[in-house]
Amino acid sequence: MGGLQKKKYESGSATNYISRNKARKKLSLSLADFRRLCILKGIYPHEPKHKKKVNKGSTAPRTFYLLKDIRFLLHEPIVGKFREYKIFVRKLRKAYGKAEWSGVQRMKENKPAYKLDHIIKERYPTFIDAVRDVDDALSMCFLFSTFARTGKCHVQTIQLCRRLGVEWMNYIITSRSLRKVFLSIKGIYYQAEVLGQTITWIIPYQFAHDHPTDVDYRVMATFTELYTTLLGFVNFRLYQTLNLVYPPKVKHTKCASIKYMDLHISYQKLAALSASLARTVPSVEDEEAELDHFPAEGEDLEKMETREKMELEQNKQKKLFEGLKFFLNREVPRESLAFVIRCFGGEVSWDKSLCIGSTYDETDETITHHIVDRPTIDKQYINRYYIQPQWVYDCVNGKILLPVEEYFLGVTLPPHLSPFVEESEGDYVPPEKLKLLALQKGEKPQAEEDEEEEEEEEDDEDDEEEDDQSEDEDEAEDEASLAEMEEKRAQGKSLSVKVTPGKVKPENRMRTEQEEKAEEKRLAIMMMKKREKYLYDKIMFGKKRHVREANKLAAKRKAHDDANKPDKKKKKKKC
Amino acid sequence: ILDNTEYLYKMCVFESFPIQSRQKQKKLLHTGMSKFTLILTSLNLQVLDKCKIFSSVSLLVFITFSVRSQDIRNTVGNIPMEWYKDYPHIGYDLDGKKLFKPIRNKDELDEFLDKMENPDYWRTVQDKMTGADIRLSDEQVDLVHRLQQGKFGDVNFNEYEPAIDFFSNEVMIHPVTNRPQDKRSFIPSLIEKEKVGKLVHAIKMGWIKPRRPKETTPQYYDLWAKEDPNSILGRHKMHVPAPKMKLPGHEESYNPPPEYLMSEEERLAWEQQDPEDRKLSFLPQKFACLRAVPAYSRFIHERFERCLDLYLCPRQRKMRVNVNPEDLIPKLPKPKDLQPFPTTQSLVYRGHSSLVRSISVSPSGQWLVSGSDDCTVRFWEVSTARCLKTVEVGGAVKGVAWNPNPSICLVAVSYDDTVVLLNPGLGDRLVCTASDQLISSYEEPEEVKDQLVQWAVAEGEGHEQGHRLILKHPKAVRQVTWHGKGDYLACVMPDNGSSLQVVIHQVSKRRTQNPFRKNKGLVQCVSFHPIRPYFFVATQRYVRVYNLIKQELTKKLMANCKWISSMAIHPGGDNVICGSYDCRLAWFDLDLSTKPYKVLRHHKKALRSVAYHRHYPLFASGSDDGSVIVCHGMVYNDLLQNPLIVPVKVLKGHTITHDLGVLDVTFHPTQPWVFSSGSDGTVRLFT
């Protein structure tokens, strides 16, 4: 028997992973630099399958990187730039200390700079990859653009973030790709479909931030650095696909004064989101060519039809607000509303003193909707609706123009539902959603009756569930009564024996069949293997919990409605 | 004098100002000149000397003031006047005589009155040098005003006169200075040379970098212009993309439906939970209008946590088990197709007042015997549930067993340390008398051996009741079982470690033998092989199979359970089932392995007894949970095919008393019926 004994942990998974500290040492970087590098290059720890093996028998909690990833970092040119920058800072400090002002000046001119272009290209080899990953970048940029210039980050960063955000919003408006909006307590969620990718981002409400102390802004700044680069390139490419000028410009009208409009004002106009963008190729409006549909391979006709239907619906949604003229009162979130309305083809304006870029006045007679967020308004025009801002968002999510009555001033608003929830079977569906679905199908709402019916239906369902539960109990009861009877019979031979004509028990065939099936299932479950049984029990437990939660919500709703019903009736009587 | 003073003045002005502000000088010169005409008469050189140290404006003012007070003249010069504070005089006049301070006895009131009454109060100034009050003339007031406004003192002065270059391109005949140029202006500077040399050296050595050229590429361009999907690095294959953030549900809305808001209790529970354990990271809230929605205080935190997740959180590709639970349920043949099997409870045999430990059916299937803790043995007619006979015995009956031989009518009953052979006298009279004769025809052998068990013939009252033979054992007997031919009878006397736990009696010869020299463990039950001369002994954990002819151990079955309670052998003889107190039923295929072929855990509580049907492919198990589970257990003749086990029916009927449910189950010998006896003192028939 020749050969050396194989040592432990010298092959296999133990050699494929490397702990963070070792990786840092291998790259000879400080922790901060390593962190920055990981963020920029998108290197993240991997959870090994057999942690103990990788950890060489120890069970200490460690994070592991793939050795390949770390090797890959070894050749990163940006590491050299980090070092250069470190040296630069040291030299600069020295020059300051020696009061060599000319040296300081010269060094500042030669400040080492780095670009992240190659990293972006490498992380996202195709454009679609980049678009897919733009969610976080958008959220971060919109957050940074709301920061005050208080030294939490560079002013240039804030300005760049704002610029990129405005560019993005203008693109979404021009391409009309917004799909869903949601007013949450955290901020406003937007969902757009760009090149077939669903992209969701959140914008906080317009308030000053209370900067927390336990947040490391350096990490955030590093991410932002990467994200701004990514977003810039994505924007450029997106603008190119629509034949728009990049950096974006407001479309030139014939007005001569615009010629002299300086850069700053034009940017502000852009940020106001009320003007359309200039194109490189003067485009023919409405160039929507009818696309011929070819059934894709392995797709049957039905699928194609549904797809076509979807497309038609989408096109309809895109023109949701076309022909409507909105006017925003000064207390509503102007940017968000202007963005949403313009995304669906509506015209929007606001008070001149509120912001630049208002296109028409409040006195304009053609305004159809006036969005107000206060209980009453003094001067009202007859030929327009005065509505609360939620109407716009609910219309977008419902894909139809909802009746405005529920959104008038001073009226208690109907609940605002999340458009992101897609109820599967067995989930709890709020009654408002059912109403909306009915509206979408084109049914007329029969407000109260419908609700009651629904409730009754729900009750029925509940009853059925209870039935299932009570089956066993029933059996037990039967058994008890039987025993009782038997006992009586055993005791009381003296009892007068009476023969009564038996009744034919109506046999519920469905029921017996169901029972039979249930029993069959129960017996089969007995025969399950231990491991499968475990899994099955787990799944069933999850399902039951789901049902329980749904039931809880339904019960809560019912209790709430019951509590509010008398009030409603009173109101009705008063009316 | 005029010429003289003018010159002097010129000189003093030039010297007191640096050369560069020539324009200023000129202006000064003009004002100065006009002033001079005013002060000319009393001007003397002394004053002019002093002028040098003042700035131009104050100089002029000083001059004008000093000119006005020509009669009283103080010669102390420019000294702080508080030096004369404590003296009666204030200085000296031109003749060197003391100048006395004017008498000042004005108090605040006088001052005030003066201020109110004197119209010239505002233009009255006290001369510090003499202490006298001076009333400024209109011209002087005008001058002060103009100076305060930053204008020139002279009204007539034009400050925008065309500039006249003092040094012009025209070469004057009189040079301003006639000094020849220095030598150093002709030779290169050494210091500069040294400095330049240092810089050159530094550049050569690379210490100083030349200025970086400006970037020409724009900040953003079409990065994916030459997009090549094939250039994707191998690294991307291992890439685990970060999951997207969870989309918000209805409860995050600023105006959610009322059911998503938390009730008071839920809110309290939420607040007491650790932030990590919370299902929702926020409290759902409702606002009447959009205007009322405040800023979310944890927004930055959430973004930051997302960042941390992106770069710090270890990622792993997990295959999500997306199983339809229905698929997990094994596909078994339908119980309907496996009929016949007992499905309903049809008869209940009542009469015992205590738990019925054991039951047995006669080989003809007409009679049933049951032994109970109320010290009775009852005989029932199966088809009518009528109790035909009750035999009292001297103790709680532990086991009953009907002789499987149809030509003999004998029942073995065990209580305490006794086994009684009863002749119930039921059924065919011939058979009964034949079995009586069989017992009475016994002849004592010549050699009487010492036996482990005392055999006695019942007489008197006992005989009338049906007692035929009484076997007194040294220990309590728990179980009796017959051999298939009906001649041999095995009894179990569980006693840990004892050598005498199992005895086998031969009824025809009234002989008893102890088959084992030593018993390992506590024997639970025993059984004869239905066809071959094998003997099964179940101890706590193992079932041992002995060959009775060769007198050796052939097999040891590992039951994989804690405590075997019962055992039954398939009529074919190749399969054994064992019930155990830890809710398991183990099916052994003797040809296959010594380990269970299948373990069923379908009872909730301990199994008390198991039984095979003699003809049908059925077996049943009774348990403390009060249920009898009937399973289809098909054994194929083909050795390659494994037995098929399908549970077909759960029979419930017995009530649970004292935590005990079903104590014994047994099948009808010919029909697919099952009997069960329970702790509630009943025997039930399921058909």
From TrEMBL, chain A:
Stretches the record annotates as Disordered: 441-518, 553-575
Coiled coil: none
GO cellular component, one term: PeBoW complex
Example of a GO biological process term: maturation of 5.8S rRNA from tricistronic rRNA transcript (SSU-rRNA, 5.8S rRNA, LSU-rRNA)
CDD domains: BRCT_pescadillo_like
Subcellular location: Nucleus, Nucleolus; Nucleus, Nucleoplasm
Composition-biased stretches (Acidic residues): 448-481
Residue ranges, compositional bias (Basic and acidic residues): 504-518
UniProt entry keywords in alphabetical sequence: Coiled coil, Nucleus, Ribosome biogenesis, rRNA processing
Record-annotated BRCT domain positions: 316-409
Cross-referenced Pfam families: BRCT_2 (PF16589), Pescadillo_N (PF06732)
InterPro entries found in the cross-reference section: BRCT_dom, BRCT_dom_sf, PES
SUPFAM superfamilies found in the cross-reference section: BRCT domain
One Gene Ontology MF term: ribonucleoprotein complex binding
Subunit structure: Component of the PeBoW complex, composed of BOP1, PES1 and WDR12. Within the PeBoW complex BOP1 interacts directly with PES1 and WDR12. The PeBoW complex also associates with the 66S pre-ribosome. Component of the PeBoW complex, composed of BOP1, PES1 and WDR12. The complex is held together by BOP1, which interacts with PES1 via its N-terminal domain and with WDR12 via a high-affinity interaction between the seven-bladed beta-propeller domains of the 2 proteins. The PeBoW complex associates with the 66S pre-ribosome. The PeBoW complex also associates with DDX27, PES1 interacts directly with DDX27. Interacts with IRS1 and UBTF. May interact with MAP1B.
HAMAP family per UniProt: Pescadillo (MF_03028)
Family: Belongs to the pescadillo family.
Function: Component of the PeBoW complex, which is required for maturation of 28S and 5.8S ribosomal RNAs and formation of the 60S ribosome.
Protein name: Pescadillo homolog
Organism, scientific name: Cyprinus carpio
Automatic annotation (TrEMBL), chain B:
GO CC annotation: nucleoplasm; PeBoW complex; preribosome, large subunit precursor
InterPro entries: BOP1/Erb1 (IPR028598), BOP1_N_dom (IPR012953), WD40/YVTN_repeat-like_dom_sf (IPR015943), WD40_repeat_CS (IPR019775), WD40_repeat_dom_sf (IPR036322), WD40_rpt (IPR001680)
Subcellular location: Nucleus, Nucleolus; Nucleus, Nucleoplasm
Main location: nucleus
UniProt GO MF annotations: ribonucleoprotein complex binding
Pfam family, one: BOP1NT
WD repeat windows: 349-390, 655-687
Residues of the BOP1 N-terminal domain: 84-342
Statement: the UniProt record of this protein carries the keyword Cell division: no
Subunit field text: Component of the PeBoW complex, composed of BOP1, PES1 and WDR12. The complex is held together by BOP1, which interacts with PES1 via its N-terminal domain and with WDR12 via a high-affinity interaction between the seven-bladed beta-propeller domains of the 2 proteins. The NOP7 complex associates with the 66S pre-ribosome. The PeBoW complex associates with DDX27, BOP1 interacts directly with DDX27.
HAMAP family tied to this protein: BOP1 (MF_03027)
PANTHER family to which the protein is assigned, alphabetical: RIBOSOME BIOGENESIS PROTEIN BOP1 (PTHR17605:SF0), RIBOSOME BIOGENESIS PROTEIN BOP1 BLOCK OF PROLIFERATION 1 PROTEIN (PTHR17605)
Protein role: Component of the PeBoW complex, which is required for maturation of 28S and 5.8S ribosomal RNAs and formation of the 60S ribosome.
Family the UniProt entry places it in: Belongs to the WD repeat BOP1/ERB1 family.
Protein name per its UniProtKB record: Ribosome biogenesis protein BOP1
Organism of this sequence: Cyprinus carpio carpio
Lineage summary: Eukaryota, Metazoa, Chordata, Craniata, Vertebrata
Gene designation per UniProt: BOP1
